[in-house]
Amino acid sequence: MRDSTVLVTGGGKGLGRAFAEALGQAGARVFITGRDVAALEETTEKLTADGILVEAMRADVVDGGAMKDVVTRIMAITGRLDVLVNNAVDPGPVGPTADVDFDAWWRTQQVNVAGPLVTAQAALAVMIPAGRGRIINLVSPAGIKRWPYATAYSVSKAALLKLSENLAAELRSTGVTVLSYNPGIVDAGLTREGMRFVGNTDDPWLDRIGRWAIEARDSGAFTPLDTAVKALVRLARGDADVLTGLVINAEDDLDARISERRASSR
């Protein structure tokens, strides 16, 4: 990925930080955004010490002006934006949907659906004229299967899947690809935070989420973090452009899927 420029939203911690590090190690120049200034500074310091070209910018993905400013800054420095990784996420409130706070529920839709759209629009303003680019939207089984008591997160991820599908179809002739990437359940980010709830909260619904995550880990349902990160790098590199519009899972046999797609397109 040498000479490539990548933007990772929510790149200051958790899975986003792991993605940023791996992309930088692969040779990309990495820009990260987020709202947690301390996390952004810590990540920048750590990655820079490891020889990675990285710059952090505080920005909220639902702020269209802020995301346009981010892309403007990237273009001023590098003159190109090759890959957007829409990783920023709001886990949303948990509990019975009949009782959940609406404002918190809606905020999740704003971050997890409107955020990727706003950021994609800012990125596409430079990708389409360049005739190339990749947008990778982080999705989840929560958007495919039912996740009762976590409807804010589940509904937002379902909507993001459809946004990716439609956007990919619209961009098919532009040279820009759009992929939905499911990294699996990994011991990082939201999942790790969820496991910490167990025994440390008075909220029975948070405790329930945490216990579910621990059971998933203990049953072997977790995807190794290294597997999730390596697959993301392959997508960012362009290996799976032929799969634009589709959902790619971290543990898929990616080469087999690519071959099947190419064969069916002949």
Compile the SSE list and pairings.
Elements: E1 5-9, H1 14-25, E2 29-34, H2 37-49, E3 54-58, H3 64-78, E4 83-86, H4 102-130, E5 133-138, H5 151-170, E6 176-182, H6 189-195, H7 204-218, H8 225-237, E7 247-249, H9 254-264
Parallel strand pairs: 1-2, 1-4, 2-3, 4-5, 5-6, 6-7
Please provide a written account of the structure.
The protein is of the alpha/beta class. The mean pLDDT is 92. Strands 3-2-1-4-5-6-7 form a 7-stranded parallel beta sheet, sandwiched between helices. The protein has helices at residues 14-25, 37-49, 64-78, 102-130, 151-170, 189-195, 204-218, 225-237, 254-264, and strands at residues 5-9, 29-34, 54-58, 83-86, 133-138, 176-182, 247-249. It is globular and about 50 Å long. The chain contains 9 helices and 7 strands. Helix 1 (14-25) crosses helix 8 and helix 6 crosses helix 7 (204-218). The two termini are 29 Å apart.
